[in-house]
Amino acid sequence: MKKNNEGNFRTFWFKYSDYELKEIDEFTYITPKEASKVTMYDPFDVADEILVDILMVGRYVEKDALDLAADGIMKFVKKYGLLGELTYLPLNTDILKQDKVYLPIGNLVCDKETMSTSEYIKLFLKCEKKQKVIIKENAKGEIIELSVENEANPLAIVDRPGEYAVVFSRAYSECLVWIMHYARTLYQTFEAIENYNKVEDAYTKQMYDNIIRNFNPSKIACRVLMGNKKEDLPILEWNFNSLKLAIDTMFALNETSDRRTVKMCKHCGKPFASDNLKAEYCSPQCRNQANVYKSRAKNK
Ligand SMILES: [Zn+2]
Fold this sequence. Notes:
This protein has helices at residues 3-6, 47-62, 66-80, 85-88, 95-98, 117-122, 163-167, 176-195, 202-214, 243-255, 284-299; strands at residues 9-10, 13-16, 19-24, 27-32, 38-41, 100-102, 114-116, 133-137, 143-148, 174-175, 221-225, 235-239, 262-264, 271-273.
């Protein structure tokens, strides 16, 4: 998915310079390191890299290579930040005012479909940190204040509701298995779409249909910004609720474009990115091997 080919749009996300793993209640969490630095970037500037990296993680999970997957996730979050599950998951959008979250059935974050917003936010604050998130509640358990203790709060420069301050804080964490599960689901969808027209049997086709139908990102908001100069095109600014939703969107744009730049290698099946729209193989090695197989098959 190439930004310039797809239109004039942008979004933003925050990442920290370093992350660490913490074991809490038998789960592994990923969280920014205390001394790490926060920076803002536009995920669309690196869309192809993000897609290839998350799909590679998903491929490792799919092939049960969990150590490689965990390693890939650490590299991923250092490059792009955590996914923003806190703001991605709820089915309702104004979770602070509504004081309640509604969650999809069978979600991995908790086994409930509804819970109070403060209880929900605490699921992402399991790691003890110097930077404190302050959640003040009234007698009814409604949140009257949500703020993040400040050293240069990233949220100060963007117009977002208070729960984003938590997502962008150093106290925020996500569980390793949530990210593994997401990467795997995305990889399975990728595989289904890429292989769809190659399979003949009705069973596999049906299975692919189900996987593709289940890929259903929602809640994408956007606005139009006028350019600074006369000759500038208006900019479509996406208000993604999370990096995860931005990835869903990049993925959907990539898979439905006739200028698709992220593909599955025809020989080894690995996801790869190429500006050459005709490229079918991830490497010269794969292309050569595929040619060897082809000529052997011909000679038989
Ligand atoms: Zn290959």
